[in-house]
Records
---
Amino acid sequence: MSFLKKSPWVLHYAATSCNGCDIELLACLTPLYDVERLGIVNTGNPKHADIFLVTGSVNEESRKVVENLYAQMPDPKVVVAIGACALSGGIFRDAYNVYGGIDQVLPVDVYVPGCAARPEAIIDGVVQALGILEERAKERKRQRRMVRA
Amino acid sequence: MSAYTWWLAIGFLVLGPLVGALLAGIDRILTARMQSRKGPPLLQPVYDVLKLLEKDTLVVTHLQSLYLWGFLFFMLISGFILFLGSDLLLSLFALTVSGIFLCLAAYSTNSPYSNIGSARELMLTMAYEPMLIMVALGFFLVSGSFRVSDIVQGSPWQVLQLGGILIGFLFVLTIKLRKSPFDLSASHHGHQELVKGITTDLSGTDLALVEIGHWYENVILLGWLYLFFAPWGLAVALPISIVLFFAEVLVDNTHARLTWSSALRVSWWVTVLFGVTNLLVLPLIGHSS
């Protein structure tokens, strides 16, 4: 079993979000939901993170930051898009300045719908991401063995 | 050095990380309970480190791993000397060298966050080092020896004779354990002005080394705390030192972070007020040597 499942550290970035989903996301850390009981820690540092949680519809300014943060995360890693805007652009979809969805700039693994996404849905999304993370870890281990051989 | 102390020293090398991880796990649960949360499982720090070993390590410069191994190596030396019952001063110097290696690792990575973090860490070293030397000096004046094996068999009154030094030591323990209000070089919590301070640019195996080093460090500091009460015997001294050790968690959760200048000022004031005063009055309240 991979220990990634027992200790997923998340990185949170608001890519042109209205902060609705961000508040719900941070609510997961409060005593009511307390995700630390699952070993989840909110790191402010991409180099320590395993799961990238992105909210918002992404514009040109935040695209650079999102790509930079993603590139700095060490493998294995997963991306979770949170909220209607992160999924498809939401109500901002037709605005000229947004990309309309995180998957326009990053490979997204889990989509969490909602406007704003509820804390329960976000936790469920992270838990689903753990399964993908474990598969990635196995794949990464295989790759390392191949490089050594 | 008897066979017993050799076993103790080897026990530190082998079981040190496990004890340190349990201390860290209890710390996290206590913190969570104080914030009316459930908190992570007891072995969460172990899971964290085992996970970090599974992750890729992003190497900024190869020097960083070298320095981190130095950090861990001198930490082991420091604890080995302490638990062998050997020279307390030598253990202290090894602990300091180990701290300097951590600063070097942070400096070598060139990130502005870790640079400021290690500058602050050096500042904190300046803040706690005088007090730590005074602890060793106090033990010497009371028991007539720097050897840990002699201090352990010292007079049962040494806690009272060294009361001021104990208070000063508990104060700098907060700095050594990186607890609030002195967590300004590397906080346990990511969201702060320095991201993660000295460990910002360390990932994967390198970060795991830092964690394991900290586990050893916590056991060493608990050992130092134990020395004050050691003449009373294991059954009394160990519970007292563990309770005092976890009192730091309460301090951590009830204080806001200080700036480096006030941290330095406050800790030197405490050092002078409690440490130096204690050393000055020590001849008056009598010592065994």
Note: The mean pLDDT of chain A is 90.
---
Amino acid sequence: MNGHDGTHEMREACGEILDLLSVDFSRSLSLVERERTERHVAECSACAEDFRFMAMVYGTRPQPPRSFAMEALAQYEAELSRRPSGWWSGSMAAAAVLLLAMGIGLASQASDPSGDFAGWTVAVESEEGMEDWAGDDWFIAGAPYLEGVSDETLLVLLTEGYFE
Amino acid sequence: MHRTDEESDSQEEELLRMARTGDRSALGALLQRHEGTVYRFLLSRTQDEDKAGDLAQETFVKALRSLDSFRGDSSFRTWLLAIARNEFRAGYRQGLRRKEQSLESVVQIADDSRDPEGDAIRGSEVERVRRELAELPEKQRMSVALRLFDGLSFREVGEATGSTEGAARVNFHHGIRKLRERLENGE
């Protein structure tokens, strides 16, 4: 900054004061620091001028046109509301496997009068999740009307007793 | 009445504690406390109001998703700015390119009636200052914005701009001096 041409001590003080003045607008100064800067500025016209300039620049500070924080909070809450809780999702998975097993068992009995598959149940949960839970092309996985149905939808169908 | 850093820190700690329990008003207050800083940081980097807004919102969403991972090794503000910096870089990789701010967009910002502090100064004056500020080298521009507009320490400015504390201080003072020269010479 220009104009700080006093004694060496004064110039050193000016540097510190300018550092402090630059955060004065955001009210970051302690009471002691504020009193120190006020005393200095009262005696140093160059620092007073610099302070006025910084105040003018501060006056052009852009403001967010709307509250992005609150919009983000609303977005996050919407995410949370769509996400099943740990307990719920765990229970759902367990229920789905159970219902699947029951459904497969009932279906096998119905479609297999000979009884070869009586009591035969399959419930496989692969490492990839429930995607391969029917295991092969039999029943659910192979049913044409269920092609393209998401796992999420299958879970809903299972819990609503669609396959019972 | 000026608040001290200690008072401010203790308020923030309390907000953080409450936010971690899921207190919605505390979460909102915590984010809103730094909303302007994050937005201005991103505006300073992108020179584009819309992109800055989008990135600011994404920054806050990311922060909310990972609030539990904040350990307090840095200030919450510094942590947010680090996320904002990453968001900017990710946006840049996806095709966001810094563009030279046209005179029209500068005027648009200057005339924005949603900026009460800017309204206090004549529009043309605001326009000139913002235009000259935008012309400063990036690190000087960001150092001026973070320090003067938001009161960050030079250490925080350095962390946000990828510089050392000392470099941040030099960038700030060079930026202010250059800005003043440009504005005075332009008159």
Note: The radius of gyration of chain A is 36 Å.
---
Amino acid sequence: MPPTIDIDSLGFDAGAHLVVKLALGRVAVGEVLEVRGQGEGWQGPLAAWCRSQGHPVAFEDGGDGRPCARITRGAVQAGRWRGAAATGAIDPGADGAVRAEADARWGLAARGATVEAGSPAFAFRLTRREDVWADSAATLYAEAVAAQWNADTAIDWQAPCDLPDEVEDAVVQVMTYMVENENAALVVPARFLGQLHPHFREVQALLAIQVADEARHIDVFTRRIALKGRQPGLSTAGGQASLKTLVDEPDFSTAQFLLAVLGEGTFVSLLNFLHHHAPDPVTRQIARLAARDEARHVAFGMAHLGQHIALEPALLARLGNAVEARYEHLAGTSGLNEEVFDALILLAAGSSEPAAIAAGYARVQELLQDMARGREARLAKLGFQGESARRLASLHTRNFM
Amino acid sequence: MTQPLVMGAVAYAPKVVTIWEGFKAWFRDQGLEFDFVLYSNYERQVEAQFDGTLHLAWNSPLAWVRAERMARARGLEVAAVAMRDTDQDLSSVLVVRQDGPADRTALVGKRVGFGAIDSPQATLIPLDHLRQAGLVAGRDYTARRFDVLGGKHGDHIGGERDAAQALMAGEIDAAWMIDGNYLAFANEGVLPSGATRILARTGLYDHCNFTVSPGAPSELIGRFIELLLGMSWDDPAVRPLLELEGLRAWRPGRTSGYAALDRAVDDEAFYDAEGKILAADYRY
């Protein structure tokens, strides 16, 4: 006796097809399922559904005066999945879960999904694991999610902030410079995000939240500019030329190196400086929160490059060359804009009194040394030997980022 | 260039271009020169099967009935050589609201919705079904036609959907539709769950077929059929074409499923025995 189901008076305008489909799923291809129903006319929609699904159906007397449908399970569903592609697995830590090369035809499917043959090829440029991957991406993403902050509540915008005009101007100039740099830090991962194969979803998520981080930074820096009714300050050709070399860099690892390891790493020093020496509580709070985010961005860059260099030692030389080339390229520009440099001194001084200026100047000198030491330490960690690390650290753009 | 096999098809929707361009490319890849001509209606397409324009045509069942009559009148022959698996053993259903007429006899004096004037599935075969049960439109009940795109022989489902909507709006008491559209309209919510009943179902009938024109080159036709029947759903290069055209497998043609329609064409005076159009208010 073939398996039998009774759909009773359930109509095909009320989901009866699903009852039949589930029952057929328990029958082998070529085997028969008998279906009984009540009421007039249920055979028509059942036959239509079977036809659309490729299951032959015949009706006969069920013996109890009611008609009975004999459905033979067709091979259409099986045919659709013949030659389908396996695409790894969810857990990135499992063997074979994240493939060395993601196929263009896996497209937008969830990693681990079964993808029908004949699916369209997507033109993702970044398809090789070693070019983009870091084992810590998932952890860093989770940390980033947990560390998101709301600019409205995390910063006390009402805190007393009555600075002398020239100091307020200096803060505004530094913030103007920060917005420009964070625009680069937003655009660079955003561009790679659109080129990254979704198979590497942990990296995709991390880049996406970096973009969100930078959008928030741009927002709070802009709100600090506007806090006292000011408009943004000055933007120099040299500063933008320096940032343009980051935006124009087509290689993911090189961009991570220049932006995250050298640029954002240097920016962490700058933000820590502002956290400690900014003349008002709003700027200090902003700097503290942004520094935390930037430190995560640096951590991903370091993790990715550490793994990539281990797999491809020649990358180290390429990265060194990229720093040299960028230095050459920017040799004709002025680097850090003078207004920013002076603004940092004034901001750290808190007033234009000579004694305060002297203290501010000393703090900025200390900042520059701190930045250089940080860069050198990160370069050494990636495998650049002593002198080479020092030299490359010193070649980093005068624009900081 | 080798003389191509030329097929006619009716452009009842924009996807028709995609479908036949896809088939054309596929046939060419298999070494068969193939081309198609699109018509805005089946009447002109069938006529072109007799003036040497077309070697074969993708015909609606009504177009097949006309082609067959025109051929017979000329002492010629047409042949239905292939059809979709989904063209075989279809039925139409008469849908009423849950509180509507209890059975066919209760349709007397009621308003019954049909599809386009030239729709086999939503007009001609249903008219025949009721006539066989002793119910004649205009005499026993009022027929209300939902005419969309005349000349397309009901390929455009708009008429059936309009009828279903009119049924739910209370403008008519019953509506005819092909069984597959009953499912489609239920999925769309046009027929709300549990709000309707199926009052009657026609006998089984067949739908479209590839109709070979009189005098078509038999070698090219043979190769065409061979390639067509060899198209496999399991082949990812072919499957999108089959899905677009709404089939899983091509079947050899048969003409056993057109009797009810043939009778309706006579009873409703749609074509005469020679395939001349009789229906006075037919616009295409």
Note: The mean pLDDT of chain A is 94.
---
Amino acid sequence: MLLPDYYEFCCRVKIVAGHDALEKIPELLTERGAKRPLIITDKGVASAGLIDIVSAALKDRLFADLIADNVPPDSDLRVVNQLAKLYQENDCDAIIAVGGGSVMDTAKGVNIVVSENAADLMAFSGVGALKRPLKPLIAVPTTAGTGSEVTQVAVIKDHEKHLKMAFGSYFLLPDISVLDSRMTMTMPPLITAMTGMDALSHAVEAYYCLQKNPLSDAHSLAAVRMIYHYLPIVAENPSDRNARLSMAVGACLAGIAFSNSMVGLVHNLGHATGSVCGVPHGICMAIMLPYGLEYNMHKREEAIAGLLLPMTGEAVYRETPPAQRADKVVSLIRQLNADLNTITGGRHARFFQEVKDREGKPLVPREVLPEIARAALSDGASIYNPEDTDYEDNLMVLEAAWEGIPLDRNKIKRG
Amino acid sequence: MSIVKDIPSAKKPFKRAYVGIFLWFTGRAIQAAAKVDKEVKKEFDNLPDDFTFSLGCLPNGPSMVIGKRNGAVKYLGGNPGQHKVHVRLAIKSVDAAFLILSFQESTALATTRNRLITDGEVPYALAVIRILDIVEVYLLPKIIAGLAVKRYPKQWSAGRKLGGRIGIYTRTILGI
């Protein structure tokens, strides 16, 4: 077992989970002396009827009629400032963020502006610029994937100046995360599959990347067990509320794990593919996950083999010879992608060649792979990957992931 | 009698001197490597014209500053305060700096142990780390360089290693 000489771990988010967890929000806000929250969400969440469920859970016990549903798919500085103004003009005293990653990031940005009376959000970018607690923030995730309800980072884009501002601080952790099965019940199978694979990639990468530690490991293993077991179930039976809640908890556990142990090659190449080709993040994660495992196998075989136990249980783990356990983990993840592909009628892509837009046009033409490989050199996730990566390594992995063939491990450069 | 006991800060002159000399030498070696090694030159070519970075330890140094000036890469001394720095790599203490710069801990491991603060845009910081890794491979014997970098570049030709070493050491010592 890899036991680091030194490590750090922090998660001070109160987590409230259940089939009726939303009803607890008024009490939680009262405990923090807040009475007038601003609800931040996006149009997709609102049109799916999820804000109605939140409102119904809060009504009669809280003055919560101030709902802003104009968060764009990409967080935007202009919207952050607009919402901060709305918060201040209405004397709000807390924020409830209902949505996915962009809504969470926007809410965190708004919280910085209103708590610090910040005229320039840029002054608080970077790591450690925030020095004191912010206003109460409650995160209500509507996907079981990003884990941003328990992460200490936010990314806000200034589309006018073409700037991407990153913020990192323990003060950005939401005070409370509310995981309620009703919030993910209406997610269609394809979105369920890709967000679930995003969560699995957090849990798995957190278990083998350089900053792993016994506390993040505990969260990773629990997350892998829940996500691997329940993801095919929710993809097939979207209205299974117990499975939905389990996925929400699994994604939250994975979020805690990766925000403490960080992620590596899967996210490195996934971010680059997303930015060059516009492929949704979850699809990139699903495709890249087996390749991240294969690429790092020679350095992390023992850790990867350890994932077999939470995935399959004790009987299969014992039956599998130790030398084959890590390979079996990779093949089971490939099989999971194949199963999700079947469940979604072929829409869940297993490799980049299969990724198409709504018109059926390929989103990742083979000729853009060199551009993706170069873009990945500018992504910070490479720092935490166990094995080093360069342009040639990136291209080799991308080509295998494009074709959908296992990585030729003999070609991986070793020091 | 005072109820408060003064605890003077440890000066650690040996570690401080080691770190100072190492940074001074590495700074000059980066200037040399930018002329000798194509990969280092390419990394600098992709950075802005006035790009400047510093590597040092908190709270008061020692540090080194490297910058691109009129197309050439220069070692700019040990005072980051005199320059507009695009990337600042700061090791949190002289003890941590000693661990890293005496190769008891790789840069990657030091990052995971939260011993390094990185200020600046991530793509620039990653380019600086790649440059530092290449220069360490040139300056150090394989057995030590293997501890300093994540992956020792076995695929480099003997000519690149030997020629590069001679060129970089010569230029570093002469300061050219």
Note: Chain B has seven helices and five strands.
